[in-house]
């Protein structure tokens, strides 16, 4: 992979983590998480091997599902409270759905079924990024 493209992808990973960590708005936190997901996909698939492609596809499907659950829970919360503020989780289904989505994104048990398969399909550097940097924003 071109070093300039790799630098841009790594900068997008950092930018996504910063946007997510600094946001007080549900939509901005979701955008940061999506930026992180979309920046790591080409890094996962940079080796032209079927296992790398499979790992990138599994990672994308799981992260997209978790992101849609986060967006859905934030919409429900905004519908009930009238605000998109992250600190106001007052309705009951919202914290439960948010917990499930963050558990999926982090790869915590019982939602960890995707993590070992994705780690096996990547190289060591990419697995290190997934195991450390990708866990910071959620």
Structural class: mainly alpha
| Residue share in β-strands | under 5%
Envelope shape: globular
Number of domains: 1
Overall mean pLDDT:
90
The number of helical elements comes to 6
Residues in helix, %: over 70%
Round the Cα radius of gyration to an integer and report it: 15 Å
Order of helices and strands: HHHHHH
| Spans of at least 5 consecutive residues with low confidence | none
Largest sheet: none
* Number of β-strand runs: 0
Distance between the ends: 28 Å
Can you put this structure into words, describing what you see?
- Helix content is 72%, strand content 0%.
- The longest helix is centred in the middle third of the chain and has 32 residues, at 50-81.
- The chain has helices spanning 3-22, 26-44, 50-81, 93-106, 115-120, 124-131.
- It has one domain (3-135).
- The protein is built from six helices and no strands.
- The protein is mainly alpha-helical and 138 residues long.
- Helix 1 packs antiparallel against helix 2.
Topology of helices and strands:
Layout: H1 3-22, H2 26-44, H3 50-81, H4 93-106, H5 115-120, H6 124-131
Helix pairs in contact: 1-2, 2-3, 3-4
Compact overview of the structure:
The protein is mostly helical.
Describe the structure using short key phrases.
single chain; 138 residues; mainly alpha
